[in-house]
Design brief:
alpha/beta; 4-stranded parallel β-sheet; 4 strands; globular
């Protein structure tokens, strides 16, 4: 099976990227497929992929390149990277530890190990630096690969989508480009999540509500620099000390 990877470290924008890729590859000229089917997650998908483009299957992963299953042939990859301080801020909201010892454990884990369990040893995602660098540089990157920054995508989503389309050798009209940017905007995806939860309809975001947390929202803020409001000053100093070399 030939795979085009949609890769990232957790909480770095892979959901947004999955929606964009699904729109680009499968969203024109018919009904948009469920994103989980169009761009399945290797970590929870147990079926044969249902959608391919010219025999190549898009698939999401949080694994560093060297931990990918050897049975899957890498055709290409798009990797999205995010400011690790915003990643940690998003991880705190996702893991939802209360203030105190649990929050301290999460921050300590990122400062000491570059990640937090179960992401490190149980799921084999590695540290943030290890994960990013495995997709960014090295002699093993012999296939076409595109490295995009979450912050650049936020600043100019039209240019970001156009860049990804070019990577897949797709010609996208200005009208279609505007449609994709609108359909994958934070406000549109946030609205879709709220509608799914309000109606109980099945869908991408309903499936994310498997924590039993009624207040949990996958689409939280969609901004850059949010860590400045949510991380304590001493936490920022420690995290910068850990991540600055790779940043």
């Amino acid at each position: 099976m030939k795979v085009t990877w949609i890769a990232s470290f957790p909480k770095s924008g892979s959901t947004w990227l999955r929606f964009i890729v699904a729109q680009l590859l499968f969203g024109e000229g018919g009904e948009m497929p469920n994103v989980r089917d169009a761009v399945p997650d290797i970590h929870d998908y147990r079926e044969t992929p249902r959608y391919d483009r010219k025999g190549v299957f898009p698939m999401k992963t949080h694994l560093p390149f060297h931990n990918l299953p050897p049975r899957l042939h890498t055709q290409s990859a798009v990797y999205i990277v995010r400011n690790p301080l915003d990643m940690v801020d998003s991880a705190l909201a996702y893991l939802d530890p209360p203030d105190g010892e649990d929050r301290k454990y999460v921050i300590d884990s990122f400062c000491n190990d570059g990640a937090v369990e179960p992401w490190t040893t149980l799921l084999h995602y590695g540290s943030w630096e290890e994960n990013v660098e495995s997709w960014f540089s090295g002699e093993h990157l012999t296939f076409p690969h595109l490295f995009v920054r979450y912050e650049d995508m936020l600043e100019n989503p039209h240019e970001g989508v156009k860049q990804i389309a070019g990577f897949y050798n797709l010609e996208v009209s200005d009208v279609r480009l505007n449609e994709i940017v609108e359909a994958t905007s934070f406000s549109s995806m946030k609205k879709a999540e709220e509608e799914e939860l309000a109606t109980g309809a099945g869908g991408f975001f309903t499936d994310e509500q498997n924590f039993g947390k009624e207040a949990f929202r996958f689409m939280r803020s969609g901004k850059a620099g949010g860590y400045t409001k949510n991380l304590h000053e001493d936490e920022v100093v420690r995290l910068l000390d850990r991540f600055r070399p790779a940043m």
